Amino acid sequence: MKKAKIILSTILLATTMLGAKTLVTVNGSEITQNDVDSALMNATQGRFNEVPAEKQAQFRQQVLEQLIGKELAYDDAKKTGVLTSKEFKEEYDKVQERVKKELAIQVWQKKIIDGISVADKDLKDYYNNNKEEFNEKESVHARHILLKTQEEAEAVIAEVKSLSGDKLKEKFIDLAKTKSTGPSGPKGGDLGYFTQGQMVPAFNDAVFGMKVGSVTPSPVQTQFGYHVIYLEDKKAPALRSYDEVKQFIEQRLKMEKFKTVMNTKMDELQKKATIK
Protein backbone atom coordinates (compact mmCIF):
# COMPACT_ATOMS: atom_id res chain seq x y z
CA MET A 1 0.00 0.00 0.00
CA LYS A 2 2.90 2.39 0.54
CA LYS A 3 3.74 2.38 -3.17
CA ALA A 4 0.08 3.02 -3.95
CA LYS A 5 0.06 6.04 -1.62
CA ILE A 6 3.04 7.58 -3.37
CA ILE A 7 1.21 7.77 -6.68
CA LEU A 8 -2.30 8.52 -5.37
CA SER A 9 -1.85 12.27 -4.95
CA THR A 10 -0.51 12.71 -8.49
CA ILE A 11 -3.27 10.57 -9.97
CA LEU A 12 -6.00 12.47 -8.13
CA LEU A 13 -4.76 15.91 -9.14
CA ALA A 14 -4.57 14.95 -12.77
CA THR A 15 -8.08 13.49 -12.97
CA THR A 16 -10.44 15.52 -10.78
CA MET A 17 -12.14 16.90 -13.88
CA LEU A 18 -12.34 13.67 -15.86
CA GLY A 19 -15.50 11.92 -14.59
CA ALA A 20 -15.23 8.26 -15.52
CA LYS A 21 -11.45 8.35 -16.05
CA THR A 22 -9.72 5.33 -14.53
CA LEU A 23 -7.64 6.40 -11.55
CA VAL A 24 -5.99 3.10 -10.80
CA THR A 25 -6.38 -0.62 -11.50
CA VAL A 26 -6.10 -3.27 -8.79
CA ASN A 27 -5.32 -6.73 -10.15
CA GLY A 28 -7.14 -5.75 -13.34
CA SER A 29 -10.19 -4.15 -11.67
CA GLU A 30 -10.66 -0.46 -12.48
CA ILE A 31 -11.41 2.25 -9.92
CA THR A 32 -12.73 5.36 -11.66
CA GLN A 33 -13.24 8.98 -10.68
CA ASN A 34 -16.98 8.25 -10.64
CA ASP A 35 -16.41 5.48 -8.10
CA VAL A 36 -14.56 7.91 -5.82
CA ASP A 37 -17.14 10.68 -6.30
CA SER A 38 -20.00 8.31 -5.49
CA ALA A 39 -18.28 7.07 -2.33
CA LEU A 40 -17.56 10.66 -1.25
CA MET A 41 -21.18 11.73 -1.71
CA ASN A 42 -22.38 8.71 0.30
CA ALA A 43 -19.87 9.36 3.07
CA THR A 44 -20.86 13.04 3.36
CA GLN A 45 -24.60 12.47 2.77
CA GLY A 46 -24.46 14.45 -0.45
CA ARG A 47 -22.63 17.40 1.10
CA PHE A 48 -19.12 16.87 -0.19
CA ASN A 49 -19.19 20.29 -1.93
CA GLU A 50 -19.56 21.89 1.50
CA VAL A 51 -16.25 20.41 2.64
CA PRO A 52 -13.51 23.13 2.67
CA ALA A 53 -11.69 23.11 -0.66
CA GLU A 54 -8.30 22.47 0.96
CA LYS A 55 -9.61 19.28 2.62
CA GLN A 56 -11.35 17.83 -0.43
CA ALA A 57 -8.18 16.39 -1.96
CA GLN A 58 -7.31 14.73 1.35
CA PHE A 59 -10.76 13.13 1.56
CA ARG A 60 -10.52 11.98 -2.06
CA GLN A 61 -7.20 10.31 -1.35
CA GLN A 62 -8.55 8.56 1.75
CA VAL A 63 -11.57 7.25 -0.16
CA LEU A 64 -9.40 6.01 -3.03
CA GLU A 65 -7.18 4.15 -0.55
CA GLN A 66 -10.27 2.56 0.98
CA LEU A 67 -11.54 1.46 -2.44
CA ILE A 68 -8.13 -0.03 -3.23
CA GLY A 69 -8.24 -1.88 0.09
CA LYS A 70 -11.68 -3.29 -0.72
CA GLU A 71 -10.51 -4.54 -4.12
CA LEU A 72 -7.49 -6.23 -2.53
CA ALA A 73 -9.65 -7.88 0.14
CA TYR A 74 -12.28 -9.02 -2.40
CA ASP A 75 -9.62 -10.41 -4.71
CA ASP A 76 -8.09 -12.42 -1.89
CA ALA A 77 -11.55 -13.62 -0.81
CA LYS A 78 -12.14 -15.02 -4.29
CA LYS A 79 -8.73 -16.69 -4.38
CA THR A 80 -9.21 -18.34 -0.98
CA GLY A 81 -12.60 -19.83 -1.86
CA VAL A 82 -14.83 -17.54 0.19
CA LEU A 83 -17.35 -17.11 -2.66
CA THR A 84 -17.92 -20.88 -2.89
CA SER A 85 -18.16 -21.47 0.87
CA LYS A 86 -21.41 -22.52 2.56
CA GLU A 87 -21.27 -19.57 4.95
CA PHE A 88 -20.96 -17.05 2.11
CA LYS A 89 -23.81 -18.60 0.10
CA GLU A 90 -26.15 -18.57 3.11
CA GLU A 91 -25.39 -14.94 3.91
CA TYR A 92 -25.62 -13.97 0.23
CA ASP A 93 -29.10 -15.50 -0.04
CA LYS A 94 -30.21 -13.51 3.02
CA VAL A 95 -28.82 -10.27 1.54
CA GLN A 96 -30.53 -10.95 -1.81
CA GLU A 97 -33.88 -11.44 -0.13
CA ARG A 98 -33.44 -8.28 1.94
CA VAL A 99 -32.40 -6.23 -1.10
CA LYS A 100 -35.34 -7.61 -3.13
CA LYS A 101 -37.78 -6.47 -0.46
CA GLU A 102 -36.19 -3.02 -0.02
CA LEU A 103 -36.01 -2.44 -3.78
CA ALA A 104 -39.63 -3.49 -4.28
CA ILE A 105 -40.72 -1.01 -1.57
CA GLN A 106 -38.66 1.78 -3.16
CA VAL A 107 -40.23 1.20 -6.60
CA TRP A 108 -43.71 0.99 -5.00
CA GLN A 109 -43.15 4.31 -3.20
CA LYS A 110 -41.79 5.95 -6.36
CA LYS A 111 -44.95 5.04 -8.25
CA ILE A 112 -47.02 6.74 -5.55
CA ILE A 113 -44.81 9.85 -5.59
CA ASP A 114 -44.92 10.04 -9.40
CA GLY A 115 -48.71 10.09 -9.19
CA ILE A 116 -48.74 13.15 -6.93
CA SER A 117 -49.06 16.58 -8.54
CA VAL A 118 -48.75 20.07 -7.07
CA ALA A 119 -50.65 23.05 -8.48
CA ASP A 120 -48.64 26.05 -9.74
CA LYS A 121 -50.58 28.27 -7.33
CA ASP A 122 -49.36 26.20 -4.36
CA LEU A 123 -45.77 26.45 -5.60
CA LYS A 124 -45.95 30.23 -5.96
CA ASP A 125 -47.70 30.65 -2.61
CA TYR A 126 -44.93 28.68 -0.90
CA TYR A 127 -42.26 30.82 -2.56
CA ASN A 128 -43.96 34.09 -1.60
CA ASN A 129 -44.54 32.97 2.01
CA ASN A 130 -41.05 31.54 2.58
CA LYS A 131 -38.65 33.83 0.72
CA GLU A 132 -36.19 33.79 3.61
CA GLU A 133 -35.37 30.18 2.66
CA PHE A 134 -34.09 31.31 -0.72
CA ASN A 135 -31.72 34.09 0.31
CA GLU A 136 -28.20 33.40 -0.97
CA LYS A 137 -25.27 34.44 1.17
CA GLU A 138 -22.47 36.64 -0.13
CA SER A 139 -20.06 34.49 -2.13
CA VAL A 140 -16.68 34.93 -3.78
CA HIS A 141 -14.82 33.24 -6.60
CA ALA A 142 -11.12 33.05 -5.76
CA ARG A 143 -7.87 31.52 -6.90
CA HIS A 144 -4.82 30.90 -4.74
CA ILE A 145 -1.22 29.82 -4.89
CA LEU A 146 -0.17 27.68 -1.92
CA LEU A 147 3.53 27.77 -0.98
CA LYS A 148 5.62 26.23 1.76
CA THR A 149 7.43 29.35 2.97
CA GLN A 150 6.67 33.01 3.50
CA GLU A 151 9.63 33.97 1.34
CA GLU A 152 8.28 31.99 -1.63
CA ALA A 153 4.87 33.60 -1.23
CA GLU A 154 6.34 37.10 -1.02
CA ALA A 155 8.34 36.43 -4.19
CA VAL A 156 5.13 35.54 -6.05
CA ILE A 157 3.41 38.70 -4.81
CA ALA A 158 6.38 40.78 -5.98
CA GLU A 159 6.19 39.11 -9.40
CA VAL A 160 2.57 40.17 -9.99
CA LYS A 161 2.60 43.46 -8.08
CA SER A 162 2.93 45.68 -11.17
CA LEU A 163 0.18 43.88 -13.12
CA SER A 164 -3.56 44.48 -13.28
CA GLY A 165 -6.66 43.37 -15.21
CA ASP A 166 -6.38 40.42 -17.59
CA LYS A 167 -2.57 40.42 -17.46
CA LEU A 168 -2.66 39.96 -13.70
CA LYS A 169 -5.18 37.12 -13.92
CA GLU A 170 -3.27 35.33 -16.69
CA LYS A 171 0.04 35.63 -14.86
CA PHE A 172 -1.53 34.43 -11.61
CA ILE A 173 -2.98 31.36 -13.33
CA ASP A 174 0.40 30.54 -14.88
CA LEU A 175 2.17 30.87 -11.53
CA ALA A 176 -0.45 28.72 -9.81
CA LYS A 177 0.09 25.94 -12.34
CA THR A 178 3.87 26.01 -11.96
CA LYS A 179 4.40 26.95 -8.30
CA SER A 180 1.36 26.06 -6.19
CA THR A 181 1.65 23.00 -3.95
CA GLY A 182 -2.12 22.86 -3.46
CA PRO A 183 -4.51 20.46 -5.26
CA SER A 184 -6.06 23.37 -7.19
CA GLY A 185 -2.70 24.25 -8.79
CA PRO A 186 -3.29 22.38 -12.07
CA LYS A 187 -6.54 24.34 -12.45
CA GLY A 188 -4.77 27.67 -12.10
CA GLY A 189 -5.50 27.79 -8.38
CA ASP A 190 -9.25 27.93 -9.02
CA LEU A 191 -11.34 27.36 -5.88
CA GLY A 192 -14.67 28.22 -7.49
CA TYR A 193 -17.39 30.08 -5.58
CA PHE A 194 -17.75 29.69 -1.81
CA THR A 195 -19.55 31.49 1.00
CA GLN A 196 -18.53 32.81 4.41
CA GLY A 197 -17.22 30.11 6.72
CA GLN A 198 -16.37 27.47 4.13
CA MET A 199 -12.64 28.20 4.27
CA VAL A 200 -10.37 28.22 7.31
CA PRO A 201 -10.67 31.50 9.32
CA ALA A 202 -7.47 33.28 8.19
CA PHE A 203 -8.15 32.54 4.52
CA ASN A 204 -11.85 33.41 4.87
CA ASP A 205 -11.19 36.77 6.54
CA ALA A 206 -8.60 37.75 3.95
CA VAL A 207 -10.56 36.87 0.83
CA PHE A 208 -13.86 38.45 1.91
CA GLY A 209 -12.04 41.72 2.61
CA MET A 210 -10.49 41.94 -0.87
CA LYS A 211 -11.50 43.88 -3.97
CA VAL A 212 -12.33 42.03 -7.18
CA GLY A 213 -9.30 41.76 -9.47
CA SER A 214 -6.76 42.18 -6.66
CA VAL A 215 -4.11 40.00 -5.03
CA THR A 216 -3.41 39.81 -1.31
CA PRO A 217 -0.68 42.38 -0.44
CA SER A 218 0.98 39.90 1.91
CA PRO A 219 0.93 36.10 2.32
CA VAL A 220 -1.95 34.57 4.27
CA GLN A 221 -0.74 31.87 6.64
CA THR A 222 -2.88 28.83 7.52
CA GLN A 223 -2.13 25.32 8.71
CA PHE A 224 -1.64 24.36 5.05
CA GLY A 225 1.12 26.87 4.32
CA TYR A 226 1.30 30.38 2.85
CA HIS A 227 -1.40 31.53 0.42
CA VAL A 228 -1.32 34.20 -2.25
CA ILE A 229 -4.95 34.90 -3.15
CA TYR A 230 -6.51 36.44 -6.26
CA LEU A 231 -10.17 37.50 -6.04
CA GLU A 232 -11.86 36.85 -9.38
CA ASP A 233 -15.47 37.73 -8.55
CA LYS A 234 -17.81 38.61 -5.69
CA LYS A 235 -21.57 38.09 -5.49
CA ALA A 236 -23.66 40.12 -3.08
CA PRO A 237 -26.40 38.46 -1.02
CA ALA A 238 -29.43 37.91 -3.25
CA LEU A 239 -32.87 36.32 -3.35
CA ARG A 240 -33.03 33.37 -5.74
CA SER A 241 -35.78 33.71 -8.31
CA TYR A 242 -38.94 31.60 -8.36
CA ASP A 243 -37.83 29.84 -11.55
CA GLU A 244 -34.53 28.85 -9.93
CA VAL A 245 -36.17 27.20 -6.93
CA LYS A 246 -39.45 25.98 -8.44
CA GLN A 247 -38.24 22.38 -8.79
CA PHE A 248 -36.97 22.32 -5.20
CA ILE A 249 -40.33 23.64 -3.91
CA GLU A 250 -42.22 21.09 -5.98
CA GLN A 251 -40.20 18.22 -4.52
CA ARG A 252 -40.73 19.51 -0.98
CA LEU A 253 -44.51 19.88 -1.38
CA LYS A 254 -44.69 16.52 -3.13
CA MET A 255 -42.99 14.88 -0.15
CA GLU A 256 -45.43 16.55 2.25
CA LYS A 257 -48.37 15.21 0.23
CA PHE A 258 -46.64 11.83 0.01
CA LYS A 259 -46.56 11.53 3.81
CA THR A 260 -50.31 12.13 4.00
CA VAL A 261 -51.03 9.70 1.15
CA MET A 262 -48.81 7.06 2.75
CA ASN A 263 -50.48 7.36 6.15
CA THR A 264 -53.88 6.81 4.51
CA LYS A 265 -52.55 3.95 2.38
CA MET A 266 -50.94 2.17 5.32
CA ASP A 267 -54.14 2.46 7.37
CA GLU A 268 -56.06 0.86 4.49
CA LEU A 269 -53.53 -1.95 4.07
CA GLN A 270 -53.43 -2.65 7.79
CA LYS A 271 -57.24 -2.99 7.96
CA LYS A 272 -57.19 -5.52 5.12
CA ALA A 273 -54.18 -7.47 6.40
CA THR A 274 -54.11 -10.47 8.71
CA ILE A 275 -51.87 -9.45 11.58
CA LYS A 276 -51.72 -11.85 14.54
Walk me through what this model shows.
With 276 residues, the protein is α+β, with helices and mostly antiparallel strands. Among the domains are: 83 residues, no CATH class; 99 residues, Chitinase A, domain 3, CATH 3.10.50. It has nine helices and eight strands. Strands 5-4-7-6 form a four-stranded antiparallel beta sheet, sandwiched between helices. Strands 1-2 form a two-stranded antiparallel ribbon. β1 and β2 form a beta hairpin. α5 packs across α9. The protein is flat. The termini are far apart. 19% of the residues are buried.
Task: Provide a concise account of the structure shown.
The protein has 276 residues and is of the alpha+beta class. The chain has helices at 2-15, 33-43, 53-79, 86-114, 120-129, 150-160, 165-179, 201-207, 242-272, and strands at 22-26, 29-32, 135-136, 139-147, 190-195, 220-222, 225-235, 238-239.
Keyword list:
276 residues; alpha+beta; Chitinase A, domain 3; four-stranded antiparallel sheet; two-stranded antiparallel ribbon; 9 helices; 8 strands
